[in-house]
Model the fold of this input.
Amino acid sequence: MINIVLFGPPGSGKGTQAQHLSEKFNLKQISTGDLFRYNIKNETELGKLAKSFIDKGELVPDQVTIDMLTDELRKPSNTNGFIFDGFPRTVAQTEALEKIVRQELNSEISICLSLVVDDEILVQRLIKRGETSGRTDDSDVEIIRNRIKEYYAKTAEVAELYKKQGKYVEVNGVGDISEISEKLFAEVEKIK
Ligand code: ADP
Done:
Protein backbone atom coordinates (compact mmCIF):
# COMPACT_ATOMS: atom_id res chain seq x y z
CA MET A 1 0.00 0.00 0.00
CA ILE A 2 0.95 3.62 -0.52
CA ASN A 3 -0.47 5.95 2.13
CA ILE A 4 0.26 9.61 1.58
CA VAL A 5 -0.24 12.49 3.97
CA LEU A 6 -0.60 15.61 1.86
CA PHE A 7 0.47 18.50 3.98
CA GLY A 8 0.49 22.27 3.69
CA PRO A 9 -1.26 25.47 4.77
CA PRO A 10 -4.79 26.44 3.68
CA GLY A 11 -4.74 27.39 0.03
CA SER A 12 -1.53 25.51 -0.75
CA GLY A 13 -3.30 23.34 -3.32
CA LYS A 14 -3.75 20.11 -1.36
CA GLY A 15 -7.20 19.38 -2.80
CA THR A 16 -6.10 19.75 -6.42
CA GLN A 17 -2.90 17.79 -5.99
CA ALA A 18 -4.61 15.05 -3.94
CA GLN A 19 -6.93 14.46 -6.87
CA HIS A 20 -4.02 14.19 -9.30
CA LEU A 21 -2.14 11.80 -7.02
CA SER A 22 -5.24 9.72 -6.48
CA GLU A 23 -5.76 9.26 -10.24
CA LYS A 24 -2.11 8.59 -10.95
CA PHE A 25 -1.59 5.90 -8.30
CA ASN A 26 -5.18 4.66 -7.79
CA LEU A 27 -5.45 5.90 -4.24
CA LYS A 28 -8.55 6.86 -2.32
CA GLN A 29 -8.57 10.53 -1.35
CA ILE A 30 -9.93 11.36 2.07
CA SER A 31 -10.39 15.08 2.69
CA THR A 32 -11.59 15.98 6.17
CA GLY A 33 -12.57 19.46 4.91
CA ASP A 34 -14.78 17.89 2.20
CA LEU A 35 -16.32 15.47 4.71
CA PHE A 36 -17.18 18.35 7.02
CA ARG A 37 -18.67 20.38 4.16
CA TYR A 38 -20.77 17.37 3.12
CA ASN A 39 -22.11 17.11 6.66
CA ILE A 40 -22.78 20.86 6.82
CA LYS A 41 -24.69 20.73 3.53
CA ASN A 42 -26.81 17.85 4.79
CA GLU A 43 -27.32 19.53 8.14
CA THR A 44 -26.22 16.56 10.21
CA GLU A 45 -25.37 16.92 13.90
CA LEU A 46 -21.70 16.58 13.01
CA GLY A 47 -22.14 19.29 10.36
CA LYS A 48 -23.72 21.71 12.82
CA LEU A 49 -20.94 21.18 15.30
CA ALA A 50 -18.19 21.49 12.66
CA LYS A 51 -19.72 24.65 11.19
CA SER A 52 -19.39 26.54 14.46
CA PHE A 53 -15.60 26.07 14.30
CA ILE A 54 -15.04 26.26 10.55
CA ASP A 55 -16.87 29.59 10.22
CA LYS A 56 -14.39 31.13 12.64
CA GLY A 57 -11.38 29.63 10.92
CA GLU A 58 -10.68 27.36 13.89
CA LEU A 59 -9.95 23.64 13.88
CA VAL A 60 -12.77 21.23 14.67
CA PRO A 61 -11.99 19.35 17.95
CA ASP A 62 -9.68 16.37 17.57
CA GLN A 63 -11.95 13.56 18.75
CA VAL A 64 -14.79 14.56 16.43
CA THR A 65 -12.41 14.70 13.48
CA ILE A 66 -10.64 11.46 14.36
CA ASP A 67 -13.95 9.56 14.71
CA MET A 68 -15.14 10.83 11.34
CA LEU A 69 -11.86 9.84 9.69
CA THR A 70 -11.94 6.39 11.28
CA ASP A 71 -15.48 5.77 9.97
CA GLU A 72 -14.37 6.76 6.49
CA LEU A 73 -11.34 4.50 6.57
CA ARG A 74 -13.46 1.53 7.62
CA LYS A 75 -15.64 1.75 4.51
CA PRO A 76 -14.74 -1.03 2.11
CA SER A 77 -12.74 0.19 -0.87
CA ASN A 78 -10.71 -1.30 -3.65
CA THR A 79 -7.63 0.87 -3.59
CA ASN A 80 -3.83 0.76 -3.57
CA GLY A 81 -3.81 3.06 -0.59
CA PHE A 82 -4.98 6.43 0.69
CA ILE A 83 -4.25 10.11 0.42
CA PHE A 84 -5.02 12.06 3.54
CA ASP A 85 -5.80 15.65 2.57
CA GLY A 86 -6.19 18.06 5.48
CA PHE A 87 -5.52 15.38 8.08
CA PRO A 88 -3.64 15.14 10.42
CA ARG A 89 -3.62 18.76 11.57
CA THR A 90 -2.53 18.28 15.19
CA VAL A 91 -0.09 16.06 17.05
CA ALA A 92 -3.02 14.09 18.56
CA GLN A 93 -4.44 13.47 15.09
CA THR A 94 -1.02 12.34 13.85
CA GLU A 95 -0.76 9.78 16.63
CA ALA A 96 -4.34 8.64 16.06
CA LEU A 97 -3.74 8.23 12.33
CA GLU A 98 -0.70 6.06 12.90
CA LYS A 99 -2.75 3.79 15.14
CA ILE A 100 -5.79 3.59 12.84
CA VAL A 101 -3.70 2.85 9.74
CA ARG A 102 -1.94 0.10 11.63
CA GLN A 103 -5.12 -1.42 13.08
CA GLU A 104 -7.53 -0.99 10.18
CA LEU A 105 -5.19 -1.40 7.21
CA ASN A 106 -2.30 -3.28 8.71
CA SER A 107 -0.12 -0.68 7.04
CA GLU A 108 1.69 2.59 7.72
CA ILE A 109 2.07 6.15 6.40
CA SER A 110 4.53 5.95 3.51
CA ILE A 111 5.33 9.63 3.03
CA CYS A 112 4.31 13.14 4.04
CA LEU A 113 4.37 15.45 1.02
CA SER A 114 4.39 19.09 2.05
CA LEU A 115 3.38 21.90 -0.29
CA VAL A 116 5.27 25.09 0.50
CA VAL A 117 3.64 28.42 -0.36
CA ASP A 118 4.32 31.91 0.95
CA ASP A 119 1.63 33.35 3.29
CA GLU A 120 0.72 36.37 1.17
CA ILE A 121 0.21 34.16 -1.87
CA LEU A 122 -2.06 31.93 0.26
CA VAL A 123 -4.21 34.89 1.28
CA GLN A 124 -4.53 36.03 -2.34
CA ARG A 125 -5.45 32.54 -3.53
CA LEU A 126 -8.10 32.05 -0.83
CA ILE A 127 -9.71 35.44 -1.44
CA LYS A 128 -9.87 34.57 -5.14
CA ARG A 129 -11.30 31.10 -4.42
CA GLY A 130 -13.91 32.74 -2.18
CA GLU A 131 -15.32 34.64 -5.16
CA THR A 132 -16.59 31.37 -6.61
CA SER A 133 -16.36 28.60 -3.98
CA GLY A 134 -19.23 29.79 -1.81
CA ARG A 135 -17.14 28.71 1.17
CA THR A 136 -17.93 30.88 4.19
CA ASP A 137 -14.37 30.44 5.47
CA ASP A 138 -12.96 31.91 2.23
CA SER A 139 -15.14 35.00 2.29
CA ASP A 140 -13.40 37.11 4.92
CA VAL A 141 -9.74 38.09 5.19
CA GLU A 142 -9.80 37.90 8.99
CA ILE A 143 -11.08 34.30 8.89
CA ILE A 144 -8.49 33.43 6.26
CA ARG A 145 -5.71 34.90 8.41
CA ASN A 146 -7.00 32.97 11.41
CA ARG A 147 -6.83 29.70 9.45
CA ILE A 148 -3.21 30.44 8.56
CA LYS A 149 -2.54 31.31 12.22
CA GLU A 150 -4.11 28.00 13.33
CA TYR A 151 -1.86 26.26 10.83
CA TYR A 152 1.30 27.70 12.40
CA ALA A 153 0.03 27.26 15.97
CA LYS A 154 -1.21 23.68 15.73
CA THR A 155 -0.41 22.10 12.40
CA ALA A 156 3.17 23.07 11.60
CA GLU A 157 4.44 20.80 14.42
CA VAL A 158 2.97 17.79 12.63
CA ALA A 159 5.78 18.24 10.10
CA GLU A 160 8.34 17.70 12.87
CA LEU A 161 6.90 14.26 13.65
CA TYR A 162 7.21 13.11 10.04
CA LYS A 163 10.68 14.66 9.78
CA LYS A 164 11.80 12.57 12.75
CA GLN A 165 10.58 9.45 10.94
CA GLY A 166 12.44 10.47 7.77
CA LYS A 167 9.16 10.63 5.84
CA TYR A 168 8.87 14.38 5.26
CA VAL A 169 9.41 15.84 1.78
CA GLU A 170 8.83 19.48 0.81
CA VAL A 171 7.73 20.49 -2.66
CA ASN A 172 7.40 24.07 -3.93
CA GLY A 173 3.66 24.69 -4.28
CA VAL A 174 4.02 27.81 -6.43
CA GLY A 175 4.06 27.46 -10.20
CA ASP A 176 2.33 25.46 -12.88
CA ILE A 177 -0.19 22.98 -11.41
CA SER A 178 0.91 20.08 -13.63
CA GLU A 179 4.59 20.73 -12.93
CA ILE A 180 3.89 20.57 -9.20
CA SER A 181 2.02 17.29 -9.76
CA GLU A 182 5.02 15.87 -11.64
CA LYS A 183 7.31 16.75 -8.74
CA LEU A 184 4.94 15.01 -6.31
CA PHE A 185 4.66 11.95 -8.58
CA ALA A 186 8.46 11.71 -8.69
CA GLU A 187 8.65 11.66 -4.88
CA VAL A 188 6.09 8.84 -4.71
CA GLU A 189 7.92 6.87 -7.40
CA LYS A 190 11.05 6.99 -5.23
CA ILE A 191 9.38 5.12 -2.40
CA LYS A 192 7.31 2.68 -4.46
P1 ADP B 1 -8.10 24.51 3.92
O1 ADP B 1 -6.93 23.58 3.90
O2 ADP B 1 -8.15 25.43 2.73
O3 ADP B 1 -8.26 25.25 5.23
P2 ADP B 1 -9.96 22.34 4.34
O4 ADP B 1 -11.10 22.03 3.45
O5 ADP B 1 -8.88 21.34 4.46
O6 ADP B 1 -9.41 23.70 3.74
O7 ADP B 1 -10.49 22.69 5.82
C1 ADP B 1 -11.49 23.64 6.06
C2 ADP B 1 -11.77 23.73 7.56
O8 ADP B 1 -12.27 22.47 8.03
C3 ADP B 1 -10.56 24.02 8.45
O9 ADP B 1 -10.30 25.41 8.57
C4 ADP B 1 -11.02 23.40 9.78
O10 ADP B 1 -11.92 24.24 10.47
C5 ADP B 1 -11.80 22.17 9.35
N1 ADP B 1 -10.92 20.97 9.30
C6 ADP B 1 -10.55 20.29 8.18
N2 ADP B 1 -9.74 19.26 8.50
C7 ADP B 1 -9.57 19.30 9.84
C8 ADP B 1 -8.83 18.53 10.79
N3 ADP B 1 -8.06 17.49 10.41
N4 ADP B 1 -8.91 18.86 12.11
C9 ADP B 1 -9.67 19.87 12.52
N5 ADP B 1 -10.38 20.66 11.69
C10 ADP B 1 -10.34 20.39 10.37
Q: What stands out?
A: The chain has a mean pLDDT of 97. Residues 66 and 96 are 7 Å apart (CA to CA). The beta strands are 2-7, 28-31, 81-85, 111-116, 168-172. The first helix runs from residue 14 to 25.
